[in-house]
Amino acid sequence: MKIGKPFRTLTLKEYLFYIDNHNKYTDFNTLGLYRSLVEHERLTLEEKLELRAYAHRFFKKPFDFLQLKDPKTYVEVAYLGQELTAGDEQQIWRDVKRNQHQILKDKRIKHRNFGDYSKHNCGDEACIWYGLMVRQGSWLAEGNMHFNTDIDKYNQKQQADRIKSERKNERNLINKAIQDEQE
């Protein structure tokens, strides 16, 4: 069976019914469910909070994975209705980044092409590449997920070239010194 309509058009009772029977619906989407909590205009804040708590009973693990897949939605839903200071927001994003790193490490995932990170997202909706699936590390992939522990391959290449040239220079100096002694 299919739900056949967007989540953001549902009432609270319909939400609860579809969450209870989510296994029966082929088009049930947990990401869509959580996004609709932020976008829904007819539900009150109390209803949204009740709905979030109810959805967490069934979908807590997929919700936690949203930190990796769609961190913006994760933060908006997790802190729904709370007034945050700039310092709070910075700390939240540091925590999300740390949690992303931990999730990738725990699941032994070597790539980072998830949700928002697999698409070109320059912020300009008129961009011809907006929303285009891109390969990680390509010049189109802006706003990639990266951590302080990542190895910068460009710097590695520069360091290797510098060491190579130093070895050549050292070898040339030794050869020159040997030639000078022989003369």
- Taken from the alpha-carbon principal axes, the silhouette is elongated
- Taking the alpha carbons of the first and last residues, their distance comes to 93 Å
The average pLDDT value, as a whole number, equals: 80
Q: What does the main sheet amount to?
A: none
Number of strands: 0
The fraction of residues assigned to DSSP E strands is under 5%
Q: What quaternary form is this?
A: single chain
Spans of at least 5 consecutive residues with low confidence: none
- In N-to-C order, the SSE pattern is HHHHHH
SS content category? mainly alpha
From the alpha-carbon coordinates, what is the Rg to the nearest angstrom?
Answer: 26 Å
The helix tally amounts to 6
Roughly how much helix do the residues carry, as a percent range? 55-70%
Task: Chart the SSEs and their pairings.
Layout: H1 12-20, H2 30-39, H3 45-69, H4 71-78, H5 86-106, H6 153-182
Helix pairs in contact: 1-3, 2-3, 2-4, 3-4
Main attributes of the structure:
183 residues; mainly alpha; 0% strand
Task: Describe the protein's architecture and organization.
The protein is mostly helical and 183 residues long. It has 6 helices and no strands. It has helices at residues 12-20, 30-39, 45-69, 71-78, 86-106, 153-182. Helix 1 packs across helix 3 (45-69) and helix 3 (45-69) packs antiparallel against helix 4 (71-78). The radius of gyration is 26 Å and the shape is elongated. The N and C termini lie far apart (93 Å). 12% of the residues are buried. The mean pLDDT is 80.
